[in-house]
Amino acid sequence: MTEIGNQMRRAVTADGSAGDADYGRIGRDYQSYRRADARISAEIQAAFGGARTVVNVGAGAGSYEPTDRAVTAVEPSAVMRSQRPEHLSPAIDAVAEALPFADDTFDAALATFTVHQWRDRAAGLREMRRVARGPVVVLTCDPFALDRFWLAWYAPEVIAVEAGRYPRIADIRRELGGTTEVINVPIPHDCTDGFGEAYFARPEVLLDPGARLANSAWSFVAPDVEERFERRLRADLASGEWDRRFGVLRGQSTFDGSLRLVVARP
Fold this sequence. Notes:
Distance between the termini: 27 Å
Strand content: 5-15%
Oligomer: single chain
Strand order of the largest sheet: 2-1-3-4-8-5
């Protein structure tokens, strides 16, 4: 492993998580709540074009990995690696900032819901660009659009945490270089990938502690924030106040939230 990789390893958690979130603690039931949504996956697949080999960086339990291409997965957390289904290849234990591959090894590179957690985002994105001779595809969130979600009304601290963690889209584009395209990805009403905004029309689901635990932002706020959120949301659902304020969302097929797909081509 390179010296950079060794330096990154000195800061990891007990299960190997190398980012800002401890997936040894919050990721044990991750796969039950965070399942790839087919409609979001279709956007990612289209971005790959004709790529046959793909490196998935910060691969987690394997969401959004294509099954019709040769995929090499990279994931530092042992807990997340253990949740990868049998039909996917085992993930390599490594960090984004020090990928153990030669230049231009892969046709394309992928990172989904992960760049905001890296300790050195710029280094990780440069590594993705280095090892991919074709498109680098990053699924992320625009920090300036996070407050569109009704959660900002009930737990502004969570939105603030996320806004501070997610990099600006302009920064991702600059660090990847080349020709970049940014695609606004609509969030489906029945989205199977339980990131926060996936529940824009199903607020009841966020009363489930497991659903919240599968969103790393909740691990960065004080317990009283979570207690207040649950108390207020439960009361507003019972009284009808949530529906008076936000009920129109229940009838929407999609939500124009913060989800973005950044596609960088050399």
